[in-house]
Amino acid sequence: NTGGFTFDPGFTSTCSCESAITFIDGEKGQLLYRGYRADELAQKSNYMEVCYLLLNGELPTQSEYEEFTDAIRMHTMLNESLKRFFTGFHYDAHPMAMLSSIVSGLSAFYHDTTNTADPEHRKIFARRMIAKIPTIAAAAYKYSIGQPMIYPKNELDYSSNFLRMMFAVPAEEYEVDPVAAEALDVLLILHADHEQNASTSTVRLAGSTGCNPYAAISSGIAALWGPAHGGANEAVLKQLSAIGDVSNVDKFIAKAKDKNDPFRLMGFGHRVYKNFDPRATVIREHCHKVLKAYGGDTDGMLELAMKLEEIALKDEYFVERKLYPNVDFYSGIIYKAIGIPTNMFTPMFAIGRTVGWVAHYLEMISDPGMRIGRPRQIYTGATERPYTDIAGR
Ligand code: SDX
């Protein structure tokens, strides 16, 4: 177990590790969190309960749930001096830049969680990280629109607290819309973990060096930002806006198939799922429920997305390559409907995925046999050769 990684030379682009947290069957389109179906948890559980499950391996009893949620509430605020970190950014900095920087900055604050050999340190780190990520994300958004940061209100549930920190202003009372809070909780559950995806593998590799745990999580945020990964949800909405109308769908599908064009249909395809991404199915159904509560598909984005899916899944290029909608294809439609701005879509993914990063980090760091991760390569460069003076070159 080298930081969770074993490298099999037969596979040039993947390395694998052992984990008991999440199981994916890509052919069947199955996703299990500690043995429970993620889509069933999305319908019957809540994000805090799923966080407990991912961290501890079992669903909590009532008293365990209350102790856990109380502990999370205790950690939702930021150290006041952390607020100065935001002012160093230009107002239009991308929230993901602020999120990764400020999470890394937590490593300069908390010395009571750096001894990861101590189970108590590990527990405080997990609860503090899960509690603070929404506060930091909402504060980044507020900074970008020139509004004051809103402090957490701990009588609210996790999702409602975040929405209030995002949209409340000091001058007025703010009532969280339960439809938005419920939709957000479902999305956080479905984004919570996903086996050895790029950002989780980044957290494990960084963490295997023994670096500060908050810095390891910050490396995962940086990896998630890319459009091939968590940045795809923001790219999907931009792409749907660019398509604009069903009459343009064929043109964009042709572009996606053109090997001379780097353009890809964002929100489609997956390294592991060669069947429907079960998360996309739940999110698509939830789109209907949320949009109905907000006056319907007024901008036509859902209708356009569903038409795009229908046409693509009949096209030989997509069928042959088993390219189905993934978790990012429909999530932005819900985020938009509940008022989340496009540049906050990937931070939303990061909020949900933080528990997965923390669970994998703790699983790895708690293993006494853990060693630093050290993937190898297939060398394709020059063979050994003698130095030549510049005059002779
Ligand atoms: C996430 O790993 C995870 O679990 C990630 C994630 C998680 O929860 O952590 O599920 C979250 O990152 C979802 C993916 C979000 N990204 C996108 O939606 C971006 C668009 N998708 C593609 O870039 C791509 O599908 C990936 C990155 C998701 C997967 O890349 P792969 O497995 O390396 O696929 P590939 O590049 O090898 O593609 C195989 C073929 C290629 O064509 P050929 O060379 O065989 O002719 O499929 C084509 C690709 O050109 N292809 C696409 C395509 N995705 C793959 N063609 C057009 N549009 C696409 N979206």
From TrEMBL:
Keywords: Acyltransferase, Transferase, Tricarboxylic acid cycle. GO terms for biological process: tricarboxylic acid cycle. The keyword Acyltransferase applies. PROSITE patterns: CITRATE_SYNTHASE. The active site is at 270, 328. InterPro entries: Citrate_synth-like_lrg_a-sub, Citrate_synth-like_sm_a-sub, Citrate_synthase, Citrate_synthase_AS, Citrate_synthase_bac-typ, Citrate_synthase_sf, Citrate_synthase_typ-I. Belongs to the citrate synthase family. This is Citrate synthase. It comes from Abyssibacter profundi. The lineage of its organism: Bacteria, Pseudomonadati, Pseudomonadota, Gammaproteobacteria, Chromatiales. The gene is gltA.
